[in-house]
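Hello K.,

You asked for the raw outputs rather than the summary table, so here they are, unedited. I folded two proteins back to back in the same session to keep the settings identical. This is the first:
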Amino acid sequence: MNNKTSNISKLITENKLDVFFSTETWLKSETTADNVLEEASPPNFRSFHHVSSEDGRRGVATQVSPVLHGRDKRVNNIKTFECVVTILEHKEWEKRVLSINLYRPPVKNLITIRNFLDEFQELLNMAYKKYNNIIVTGDFNIWVDCDNKTYVKEFLEFLRVNSFGMHPNEPTFSRSTHFLDLVLFRNVEVSGVKVREDQISDHYTVYFKWRPVQRD
């Protein structure tokens, strides 16, 4: 993200985005992340991030416009993926939304996938105690279009059991035809989904409109 700050800020401004979720930021320290994300954001945006200097960790971030009230919810001791968890509120919403922006490393053996699903379920179980409206975004590195593979079947069953919908249904990576960058939603209305190559990454940008379902 270091060398893309102006492009990201321009993308957010020109598309009038209220939230921008990014993965693989490659930001390794809190100070660096704060400075870079400020440069990558329009005025008055707030940023929430997870950074780590550990090998294999790539960083995730959520940038939020002043239209929304955002609060960081710290999550510790997750080993199989990185995430930033944010509570989002809007004056026109009756419900708060818990957003989880995550990155899972590209390891596709069944044991690794199952370990990921176990940890992901633990995180969701904690979330369900307080939040009914949840949106999850990120690079899962799971080729959900290959639904004949066992690990994909188990992932899709995981989504069904947890009552998550999923978008998009088209490739999101410039070097393959697979769907690996996902938007998952539970009690959240998602519409206007489009995938676009903005040339700021080898992954495409997924655009969508969303708001919490206004009922219990």
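The second followed immediately with the same parameters:
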Amino acid sequence: MIGSVLVANRGEIACRIFRTCRELGIRTVAVHSDADENALHARVADATVRLPGAASADTYLRGDLIVRAALAAGADAVHPGYGFLSENAGFARAVTDAGLVWIGPSPEVIEAMASKTRAKQLMGLKPLTGVTEADLPVLVKAAAGGGGRGMRVVRQLAELDGALEAARAEAHSAFGDGEVFVEPYVEGGRHIEVQVLADTHGTVWTLGTRDCSLQRRHQKVIEESPAPGLSEALTEELHKLAVRAARAVDYTGAGTVEFLVGEDGRAHFLEMNTRLQVEHPVTEAVFGIDLVALQIRVAEGGALPHNRPRARGHALEARLYAENPAKGWTPQTGVLHRLAVPQSPDIRLDTGYADGDMIPVHYDPMLAKVVVHAPTRAEALRKLAGALERATIHGPITNRDLLVRSLRHEEFTTARMTTGFYDRHLNELTHPTPDPHAPLAAALADAHG
């Protein structure tokens, strides 16, 4: 049995994992950079270990320091969270080589799925070779990593060589791997994914679908489960493909199989993420489960029930960022004086900040995730938009207004959104809202003028 877990991460995901550990009676260990010395995740853990420095490369990406910290703190397991080293096979191997339990799939599985080209081969798919005019538009993608880096859309054949060169350079800089590949570019597509959970006893669960089409810079902004408007046949096909991907590598733990679904209803396999996703709470809400607790059970060698839990209702998640969408999504820093959302059993706030905390410049600007659950999608939409609108947020500029307007946009409420949603609608969604009190203020000013 696992008695102590070090979370090799920071912010909201570290706090979220600690919450489950406390419920299970497991001791928690945090690592923190100098910039995060007083961060919430460091304050709520049972023990902390300093990682000298502030930049990610010097701290949260230093697997050697994190393994050393786990051993020094007496942890017997490591949970990677998402991002940072969560899909780094070398780090997973270093953890297990040190005699610690790795809460995730094996290093070999991470390695197999880390390369999108190898993952496609395992799925029996082949990248494009010898691109012609008839293949356009195409997408040049990095074989490793994600987050939109090492990615280029090519609409003219003359642009292909330059796009390949630029993508290789960006991929090598971001991931240390310059391998890229070319695949058809699906315009007007939806980003659909399937949550999988597998144990060491041969059971593989598929836990519904998620729609993550609302993205900025290839990073998700609003997610929901189940994905609306999918036919039963397509949903069944996606579930079968997800199980196939998991069984192809003897997968264990939580993972996500991602697809792009075109306007023609065809599903295109993208990749398999070998970690917990940012958006995992919508699946937890719909299925009434704790994915982190189940990850820990699987890591301990426990078996999943043969029958997966049943889905109930609809869940939506909005990522609240300290950023200015109207100014190129510019990250914002400063003191978060107050962050509060209306309290309700069906409203969940996952955050790595408390009132008065400083938002550092070194890391992702996400402040929190607001998650709601309701019997229907329409009710969930109304509830999430209302919760965000009534939220108290004092501090740097955030994307709150954008989120509310997105949730109420006709294209989203009717489930006709695609990954190009913000390309089409950003200007209208970020247009300043007239102050309803402005006419009264002007009249009073004139009266006293």
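The chain has a mean pLDDT of 94.

Happy to rerun anything if the numbers look odd on your end.

Regards,
P.
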